[in-house]
Amino acid sequence: MALADVLREYGSPTYVYDVDATARDAEELRGGFGAQRHHVCYAVKANSAGPIVRALAAKGCGADVVSGPELLLALRCGIAPDDIVFSGIGKSNEELDLAIGRQILALQIESVEDVSRIAARAKALGKRARVSLRINPEIDPDELATHAHIATGHDEAKFGIARADLPDALAGVEGASPHVALVGLGAHVGSQFTRTDEYLASARILFDVAREVRPRFALQFVDTGGGFGIDYGGGCAVRPADFVRATCTLLRERGLDDLSLHVEPGRSLVAAHAVLLARVIQRKAPRGGARKWLVIDAGMNDLLRPALYQAKHRIEPLEAGEAGPRTEFRVVGPVCESSDDFGAHELPAASFEAVALLDAGAYGYTMASRYNGRALPAEVFLSGGRIVAALARQSAETWADERATVGEVSPRL
C-alpha cells in the first residue's frame, strides 16, 4: 500500500505499522530456540497497540508488562495469565493485587523490600504469588555498547537486586514461602545491543546464580531479558535469533537446559516495521547561514527518542525519487523546545511535501504526549496490503475543551 495514500486519508503525523512483518520476526525469533523449552514475553512498553499485541499473541508470544494497565491490555488481547511476567520497580499495592489475583506467571522482584510487600498482599488475598528474582548483573556501564539511559544492568541503575543483597532476598522468599513461590531468576542488562557480548556476559552471571540456587528452590525458568538491537542506520550484524541461539548454547554448557529459557524482546519485534509520516511545513535558509532547516509537522511529542536518547531515525521523502542532487537539512519539528530536533539528514534538494521517519515502531506512540496542546498522532495498521485497523487523532477543539473545563466539575469525594 502506498504511504502517500495513507497520508492523504489520515493526515499527519501518522504512524503506519506493518503487522505481518512483526509476526514474521516473532516466528524467526522463536525458531532460534530450536528444541530448547522457552517462552517469549513481548515487552509491551515498546508498542502497546492492540493489533500488534494480538498478532504476537497469535504467534505464541506472552507479555512482559510494567504496569497495571499494560497487564490488563495483555489479558484483553488474549494473552493468558500464565504467559505474563510483571517487571519494573515501584509496583503499587493495587498493581500487586491485580497480578496476584490474576495468578500471572511471575512478579519480578527487584529489591529485598519487594519480598515482604508481595507476601503481605498475597496473604491478604489468600493466594500464593509466583515470583522471579531480577538480578542486577552489575556490569560496568563503560563496557556496555549502548546509550547510558537504556543501560540497566550496572550498580548505578535503579533496576534489579544487587548481587550482595541476593542472600537476603532468598532468605526472605524462604521465610514467606506460605505466600510466595520462587519460580524463576532473571536479569536485564540494557537495550539496543548490536552484538551479543554484553547479553551473554549478563547471562553467565545469571546462570551461575541459578546453579547455586537450584538446590533450595524449584526453579522453572531463567529469564535473560531483552535488549536485542536493530539497525537504525549504523548497522547491526546480529538478529534476535542469534542472541537466543548463543544463550541456548550457554544454557546447555551450564547444565541448565532442563529449565525454560525466557526472553523479553520489545524493540526488535516492532521497531523496523513502522514509519512516522509527516508533512513538510516549510524550509528555512537564513541569509549567509550555512545551515538549511526543514520544518516538519511531527515533533518530539510524537517521537521522543531523538530528544531523550539522542537517537537518530533515517528520514526519506515520500514522493521524491533517488535521482538528483541531495543537500544536508537539519530536520526539526514545531514544538517550542530546542531539543525538538531530528538531526542532520541528506535529503533531495528538490522540493518535496512529505517525509517518512523510519524504524519508528518502538517507543514511538507509547512515549507520545500532548505537549504544546498538539494532538497524539494517528495510527494505521497494515496487513495483507490493506488497512486493517486505525486510530484517528483527537481534534484540537476536544483538547481545548478538556483543558478549559478542568475544575468546573466538583471533584469526586
Please give a structural write-up:
By secondary structure, this protein is of the alpha/beta class. It folds into two domains: 3-13 and 272-393, Beta Barrel (Lyase, Ornithine Decarboxylase, Chain A, domain 1), CATH 2.40.37; 88-263, TIM Barrel (Alpha-Beta Barrel). It contains twelve helices and 17 strands. It has helices at 3-10, 19-31, 50-58, 68-76, 93-101, 112-125, 166-175, 197-213, 240-253, 267-270, 305-309, 396-404; strands at 14-18, 38-43, 62-65, 84-86, 106-109, 129-135, 180-187, 221-223, 260-263, 274-284, 293-296, 315-317, 326-332, 341-348, 354-357, 378-383, 386-391. Strands 1, 10, 11, 12, 13, 14, 15, 16 and 17 form a nine-stranded mixed beta sheet that branches. Strands 2-3-4-5-6-7-8-9 form an eight-stranded parallel β-barrel, surrounded by seven helices. Strand 10 and strand 11 (293-296) form a beta hairpin. Helix 2 (19-31) runs parallel beside helix 9 (240-253) and helix 8 packs parallel to helix 9. The chain is globular and about 70 Å long. The chain starts with a helix and ends in a 9-residue tail after the last helix. Residues 145-154 have low confidence and may be disordered.
| CATH fold naming of the largest domain | TIM Barrel
Helical content stands at: 25-40%
Radius of gyration: 23 Å
Count of DSSP-assigned helices: 12
Strand percentage: 15-25%
Distance between the termini: 51 Å
Give me the CATH architecture of the largest domain, please: Alpha-Beta Barrel
Supply database-style keywords.
TIM Barrel; 413 residues; 2 domains; alpha/beta; Lyase, Ornithine Decarboxylase, Chain A, domain 1; 23% strand; 9-stranded mixed β-sheet; 8-stranded parallel β-barrel
